[in-house]
Specification:
This protein is an all-alpha fold. It is 72% helix and 0% strand.
Amino acid sequence: MGCCLRRLQLLSTCVAFSLGASVGTWKGTIGNWSMFIWCFCFVVTLINLIVELCELEDHFPFSWDNFLITCNCYSALLCLSASIIYPTTYIQFLPDSRYRDRTITSTAFSCLAFVAYAMEVACTRAQPNMITGYMATVPGLLKGLETTVACVIFVFISSPYLYLHQPALVWCVAVYSICFLLSSVALLLNLGKCDNRLPIPFPIFQVVLTLLSVLLYATALVLWPLYQFNQKFSGQPQRSSDVSCSDRLTSLVCTWNQRLAVASLTAINLLIYVTDLVFSVHLDFVSG
């Protein structure tokens, strides 16, 4: 079952990447993100398949099963993000043509890749006497979601002119970076089995980091829309007021849409952090 799913993952990511390349997806920053995801997932899956076919799992200094389920969880999350971002930034602006058909097909294979990775994670968790890796647990998946959404935010704010003109917006970018690092630290400590080396219990450490991230994201949720869409703070409340949005270039996302995407993703990630905080408190302090 695992080999069949892995071959499906290779096929779907390869086709999605190939069709995306054929329509010039790499010309835009957002398109580069999708192309990177499909290429990255294909390469990682191919390496994992070769390792297992050659029976080299025991030669690694870490738990191969834990590493594999971590790769599959992140690949599923990344392919899901590409399956959402790619069509919303390309398909709706393309006229009916063979390029539109290729883009739709590429999206379909990206969705198929997500399903294949998610199925492998589900099958791994369903195995009897299987020690589930941290990424396959609810806290691990939430941490993975937090870092994945942050990566998508970084893609949309890759142009410095979106925020350098206002200190408050620079603060928002700092918030996204700090919270990404905090989630990554908690994730790496757990995956590396280093959580017991901290001077305080890891559950308390994790709750403190998550609470700090919630507070920081709350400030970003207020400041980013305020300084991007309020005219009193030199913002642009209407999409029509942005000259870049009048250009129908399909390889680029106009500035106003990027600002709106960041505001929406900030709200989504704040919700994920709040869910993570509530779940962690309930799991470690209420139920425990």
